């Protein structure tokens, strides 16, 4: 059984008096431990796929099954608990809580997991060092640059030790060296924790780093290729 299976997925969004097809008859499978990028032009359906896998949205048709669990048959409370313990998100818009400090943003999901304070602080300290944002723990998101906010968002996503990390354009606001360091960290987590990473990206650096490249166009699968990074 694959870790994630999208079967005959269709997704239609109402836009005014029209309907826009985001995905059409899409079939995808992901195994545990993959390091995969969804590529394709804007509007090809990459972010929609991530939202469906993460249970943030539901398909118009077809099914999404993760670790044997159908997202369409789960209650909102069950999906929220599943996301907390198994899914890490890196959103393109960061989605940091503005009234919390950088460290508190990362600590928040760990508190929901009821981790002891000492373990929470240990993970935060380690991640801030690894992501080169040590010293920024007490700053609010509005006092951070876009690249710094992105790294805090990455720290929050991986702090919970999720089964799957879904990252929407994770290097979009990073310089090339910081992006390379981030990808190295993610590859290490992929290797040591068997964490599954699924990215959407236009960035050649991300695409070249992936072991599998899925290309979408107009909501349909255009190609699905394995590669040696």
Notes on the protein architecture:
The longest helix is centred in the last third of the chain and has 18 residues. This protein has 229 residues and is of the alpha/beta class. The protein has a single domain, classed as P-loop containing nucleotide triphosphate hydrolases (Rossmann fold), CATH 3.40.50. The strands form two sheets. It has a six-stranded mixed beta sheet with strand order 6-7-8-3-9-10, sandwiched between helices. A four-stranded antiparallel beta sheet has the order 2-1-4-5. It is built from seven helices and ten strands. The protein is globular, with a radius of gyration of 17 Å. Helix 3 packs parallel to helix 5 and helix 4 crosses helix 5. The model has no long low-confidence stretch (mean pLDDT 92).
Structural class: alpha/beta
CATH topology: Rossmann fold
How many domain regions? 1
Q: How would you sum up the global shape?
A: globular
Approximate helicity band: 25-40%
Number of E-type strands: 10
What's the CATH H-level homologous superfamily? P-loop containing nucleotide triphosphate hydrolases
Order of helices and strands: EEEHEEHEHHHEHEHEE
Task: Estimate the strand proportion.
Answer: 25-35%
Specify the number of helices.
7
Largest sheet: 6 strands, mixed
Q: Rg, please? A: 17 Å
* CATH architecture label: 3-Layer(aba) Sandwich
CATH class: Alpha Beta
Average pLDDT across residues? 92
